[in-house]
Design goal:
Blueprint (H helix, E strand, L loop, with lengths): L4 E6 L5 H10 L3 E7 L3 H11 L7 H6 L3 E4 L6 H10 L3 E5 L6 H14 L3 E4 L20 E7 L11 H16 L4 E9 L8 E8 L4 E7 L6 E8 L2 E6 L4 E9 L7 E8 L2 E8 L8 H13 L9 H22 L1
Parallel strand pairs: 1-2, 1-3, 3-4, 4-5, 6-9
Antiparallel strand pairs: 6-10, 7-8, 8-9, 10-11, 11-12, 12-14, 13-14
Helix pairs in contact: 1-2, 1-7, 4-5, 5-8, 6-8
């Protein structure tokens, strides 16, 4: 499929407006239009993108090959179900749905209709995370902090589904093993839902991940630390900074900066520091381009429906454990 895809955006609020803007600029896409229950918002976004405004979801689907859904989480299942039943490829913002059962239904429906279902876990394409693809990763311990100042946006879901799910998805993509057990705790501060959460995930291969997420913080923090045999990596997703420390044989050629020589068991070893070049790029545009390329058979989906469902399953387990602990 090489012709332009007629792709529409459903929900053009905080995130959806950016979906529309990027899709209007991707050469392989014809932005067929936008739809939102807030018509004034839809008209404003449509004017900025020189695209039509649809009066209904049905009208939108009638002229679209694919849709990008950026509506509130509670509506994901209904909007995506209607879209998939109409035979449309679907890109849906995280979390994929509110419940595991809903996610399973969408995955089954996408397979039945032979269409793509992808989930917008945007941090997978954070420029600071991409350099890790050049290293052989076998993490033993992962530490993650994701803190954000309080805003009313996103408070329709608990912090686990709003913020922590980003890091759950990243961790599941880094660790090649099933989850063995989870421990979690959390508290409510500003809302009636959970605002601060901590989870400790142990995988069957022995890897441990410790994740903290809070939407009650003075400053934004998005940091990941990865520890494995002979290597330590620290990634600052906000600053776009990746630093790698590796333990190498002293005779091994390397372009890295040697920070310290070590003597271990009669073997000369050295700690080498590397600061990979970070290529600037817009993660949202990259994942939307991947969605288009996957529909056209040029690439594989970065986060398909099953990966979105797996992240939701872990997030849901964490949230339920916190709720039970608070009772």
């Amino acid at each position: 499929m090489n012709q332009k895809l007629n792709l529409s955006v459903i929900g053009v609020g905080h995130l959806g407006r950016h979906h529309a803007r990027h899709l209007s600029e991707i050469p392989q896409v014809n932005l067929a239009g936008v739809f939102d229950t807030d018509r004034d918002q839809a008209l404003q976004v449509a004017a900025n993108c020189a695209a039509p405004v649809f009066n209904s979801l049905e009208e939108c689907l009638s002229v679209s090959d694919a849709v990008s859904i950026a509506t509130p989480t509670v509506t994901h299942a209904d909007v995506a179900t209607t879209s998939l039943q109409a035979g449309k490829h679907v890109f849906i913002e995280k979390p994929i749905t509110s419940t595991i059962a809903e996610a399973d239904e969408l995955i089954g429906l996408a397979e039945k209709m032979n269409v793509n279902l992808q989930v917008g876990h945007i941090e997978r394409l954070n420029p600071a995370l991409l350099p890790l693809q050049n290293y052989q990763l076998k993490p033993k311990f992962i530490e993650v902090q994701r803190l954000a100042p309080f805003t009313t946006r996103g408070t329709d879901v608990p912090v686990v589904l709003d913020l922590m799910i980003h890091d759950i998805d990243i961790i599941l993509s880094l660790v090649d093993a099933p989850v063995k057990n989870i421990r979690a705790s959390g508290v409510s501060i500003m809302t009636k839902s959970v605002d601060i959460a901590n989870a400790r995930i142990r995988f069957k291969n022995g890897t441990v991940a410790n994740i903290t997420a809070s939407r009650i913080a003075k400053d934004q923090v998005r940091k990941i630390k990865i520890f494995q045999q002979d290597m330590y990596a620290t990634i600052d997703l906000s600053l776009g900074l990746t630093e790698i420390y590796r333990l190498l044989d002293a005779r091994q050629d390397t372009d890295a900066i040697v920070t310290a020589p070590l003597q271990q068991d009669d073997n000369q070893r050295q700690i080498a520091y590397e600061k990979p070049k970070i290529d600037a790029g817009d993660a949202l545009r990259m994942e939307l381009e991947n969605f288009v390329a996957a529909i056209q058979g040029r690439e594989k989906p970065i986060v398909d429906g099953r990966a979105g469902r797996d992240a939701l399953a872990v997030a849901d387990k964490i949230h339920q454990m916190i709720i039970e602990d608070l009772l």
